[in-house]
Amino acid sequence: MIKLTQSIIKNFTAKDYIKYRKEIKMFYYGRKEVQQALARKKKPKKEIYDKKKDPYYVIEQKFIDKINSVYWSNRKKSEKTAIALINKPWFQHKKNAKSRCLYKKDKKYKYYGGRGIKYIISNDDLKMLWIRDKAYLMQQPSIHRIDNDGNYTYENCQFIEMDKHRLI
Hints:
The chain is mainly alpha-helical. It is built from nine helices and two strands; from the N terminus they run ααααααααββα.
């Protein structure tokens, strides 16, 4: 078991946070409080479950907020983007499509934004699109507009393999 201090926790990588999650909880909230919350993990059966009243949920949320504030405050923009790519694999597709439509300095702007194509799809819609088309099973997923002159919308987009996309 590692001896934790505030400075050690600040220098943790994402893998370290996952590896030492329980120890970090105990560092911030004390062993007794965490063990009590783990013992009360079961939800009440007859009453309507309210997350805010569940002590385990409250401690968990405090822990997550504390970790996020410590973790994100000490990270560079490139590291935050890398973590977003791990947690949200559709993030890079969103970033590229939006760049093609909005930023005139992008190499492909003249083919997208220059032709009047707009990026309208929301983050939630893109996530649902990712799940609907099972892009997580693909080797190289690529976002494809069904109507070539249409905007990036939920109805007009789909994820397909990059090899198939190149042939279209």
